[in-house]
Write a structure and sequence with these properties.
single chain, 196 residues, mainly alpha, 2 strands
Length: 196
């Protein structure tokens, strides 16, 4: 029985040495993979931010809600197809929801009437979703902005460099839609004249 005690002690000692070296190997491996993991986390956060930002700019399918509503107003409902009228109804609801949400956020910092006015300006289709609202523009809108930023904010922003690729972030690419007459559609005179 005395012979089994040293064997168990030796096994525990060897097992702890293996566990120690596995832990060291894991730590070293994580040090090599950390930059990739950090970049992945950064990309995920940026994607989440972009999705949240887009959710504040109502889109119905691939079209801005404000543009759908404006088109129906310009063409008159009698000159617009049923599908577009339904889209315009949904677009108007999306715009109302966006104004309400933005006003609720602004109510934390502004009186009710001012918050409602600014929320309307920000969500009524005057700006595309990627239009940068600079400090002067924000002040003209009545937003209480400050340029006194602590150095930690600049350090945080350095973690998310902008691409500076020079290409527009809003790019109109006309898509061929099925059915109906209109520019770029199968039944339009412009398309028919180019066909043999």
């Amino acid at each position: 029985m005395d012979d089994t005690k040293p064997r168990w002690g030796l096994r525990i000692w060897k097992g702890s040495k293996v566990a120690f070296w596995l832990l060291i190997g894991y730590v070293v491996l994580m040090q090599f993979l950390a930059p990739n993991r950090l970049e992945s986390v950064r990309a995920d956060l940026l994607d989440q931010f972009q999705e949240q930002r887009k959710s504040r700019d109502p889109q119905i399918g691939d079209m801005p809600a404000a543009s759908i509503v404006r088109m129906v107003e310009m063409k008159k409902p009698s000159n617009v197809g049923d599908e577009m009228l339904v889209l315009a109804d949904i677009a108007q609801k999306a715009r109302l929801q966006t104004v309400t949400f933005v006003a609720e956020v602004l109510l934390k910092h502004l009186p009710k009437d001012k918050a409602a006015g600014i929320a309307t300006v920000l969500s009524d289709g005057r700006f595309t979703h990627d239009f940068p609202i600079m400090v002067e523009t924000a002040r003209q809108l009545g937003l209480p902005v400050s340029t006194n930023m602590p150095p930690s904010i600049y350090a945080l922003m350095d973690l998310y460099p902008q691409s500076g690729s020079g290409r527009p972030s809003v790019l109109y690419v006309p898509l061929r839609r099925l059915g109906g007459d209109g520019p770029g559609r199968a039944g339009s005179p412009a398309r028919q004249s180019n066909q043999p």
